[in-house]
Amino acid sequence: MATPIQQNLTTKNEQYASKFTEGHLALPPAKKYAVGIDPAAAYGISLGDAHVIRNAGGNARDALRSLVISEQLLGTTEILLIKHTGCGMLTFTNEDAHAVVEKNLGSEGKTELASLDFQPFPDLEKAVESDVEFLKKSNAIPDSVTVSGWVYEVETGKVKHIV
User: Fold this and answer.
1) β-strand pairing of 146-152 with 78-84
2) Angstrom distance (rounded) from CA 62 to CA 51
3) CA–CA distance, 44 with 3 (Å, rounded to integer)
4) Is there a contact between 155 and 87 (Cβ–Cβ < 8 Å)?
5) Which DSSP string corresponds to the chain?
6) Which terminus of the chain, N or C, has fewer Cβ atoms within 10 Å?
7) pTM for the full model?
8) Cβ atoms 134, 60 nearer than 8 A
């Protein structure tokens, strides 16, 4: 059963997707800067309604510190984990990323980031399922917090509930 927050996301996204015309945009971004999907427009979230946490790949492990602050200090009670189609994290492996780091940043960059897991993923829906499972099993996220996983389809503007 969908929570009121999940139902609002679905309803507002249906309205947004019905007018969406930007599904043709290129990857990587044409202007070469990172902003991310506009959750206010795509999900009908008004300014001040939600704590929006972003990172490469919508990664739960990277977001855990921010999620704990959001839950424990700001009083949020639900997590909507959203990844998107066409995500750059689907396009490389850790080995690829480390090779680019070495090429572009040299040996110092390679050494500093040698143990870094860039956390790419080959399957979008499985990555959503894995991140939701990680959050639900984490002792840092109380059982009282609702966690759900979604995929935003950049081609259509629609959001799909995964788990």
Assistant:
1) parallel
2) 15
3) 15
4) no
5) ---HHHHHHHHHHHHHHHT---TT--SS-TT-------HHHHH-PPTTS------GGG-HHHHHHHHHHHHHTT---EEEEEEETT-GGGS--HHHHHHHHHHHHHHHHHHHTTT------S-HHHHHHHHHHHHHH-TTS-TTSEEEEEEE-TTT--EEE--
6) N
7) 0.83
8) yes
Token pair in block for residue 19: 């007018």
Question: Tokens 């680019």, residue?
Answer: 100
- Please tell me whether the peptide bond between 39 and the residue prior to it is cis, using omega within 30 degrees of 0: no
Provide the token pair at 46.
């008004």
Residue 161, both tokens: 């509930």
Q: Which amino acid is at 139?
A: N
Residue 129 contacts residue 149 (beta carbons within 8 Å): yes
Q: Cα–Cα distance between 163 and 137 in angstroms, integer? A: 14
